[in-house]
Amino acid sequence: xxxxxFVGGNFKMNGTIESVKAIAKNLSEAQLDPNVDxxxxxxxxxxxxxxxxxxxGLEVAAQNVFDKPNGAFTGEIxxxxxxxxxxxxxxxxxxxxxxxxxxxxxxxxxxxxxxxEGGVGVIWCCGESLEEREAGQTIAVIEKQLAAVAAKxxxxxKVVIAYEPIWAIGTGKVATVQQAQEVHEAIRKxxxxxxNDKVAEETRILYGGSVNGKNCKELAKEKDIDGFLVGxxxxxxxxxxxxxxxL
Length: 247
Ligand code: PEP
Fold this sequence. Notes:
This protein is α/β, with parallel strands linked by helices. The chain has one domain: Aldolase class I (TIM Barrel), CATH 3.20.20. It is built from 11 helices and 8 strands. The chain has an 8-stranded parallel β-barrel with strand order 1-2-3-4-5-6-7-8, surrounded by 4 helices. Strand 7 (about 205-210), helix 10 and strand 8 (about 225-230) form a beta-alpha-beta unit. It is globular, with a radius of gyration of 17 Å. Phosphoenolpyruvate binds next to strand 8.
């Protein structure tokens, strides 16, 4: 089965009412490859605004969601609230949340379970630090992250995996095509051995880390790279070139 190319844009804590509206409008008017799923993740405060200004067919994601249905959880948002607002996706396990906000593999897995069971798609992020790569631990780190999520979820159809080496995020230091493909292949192998053949074959694996309008085409040619999760460049006009990597 051919996996549909997927490009996510993570605005992080960037943007204003005017700038996110302009991005939504520009994307809605751009000529985009119809064979690509496009999902953009503005800050929580702008989710509804972006949904309103984005044409149908282009999706919006939260950057995080909580793993409780509702209640006394100040500052958090729920899966139900996302669904209620027409937000069908969330990013989970981004390295900035893991390292700065202290989210463990288990917390990320629990949130992934909650979101997928509530009908919200998850862009589930994993990746190693520079020290881990240099110590030859890249695959072991990712397998540990995968094992935590696989222990909690049964339905992988709503999960897109984003491999994001921490040393490549926001640094301008993109992984080589070989480094990315090697890890993507290892993730697929792990899914085959530990989940099943169908999940290994059908789950999309995105690369994230300093992707831009120039390096995207080479990366997109690799057989196990099914799209991108883009930070900085998702705020710029070149995001359209990344979406259209295969044209
Ligand atoms: C990200 O934050 O997910 C990311 C990949 O950032 P950047 O593209 O800026 O490296």
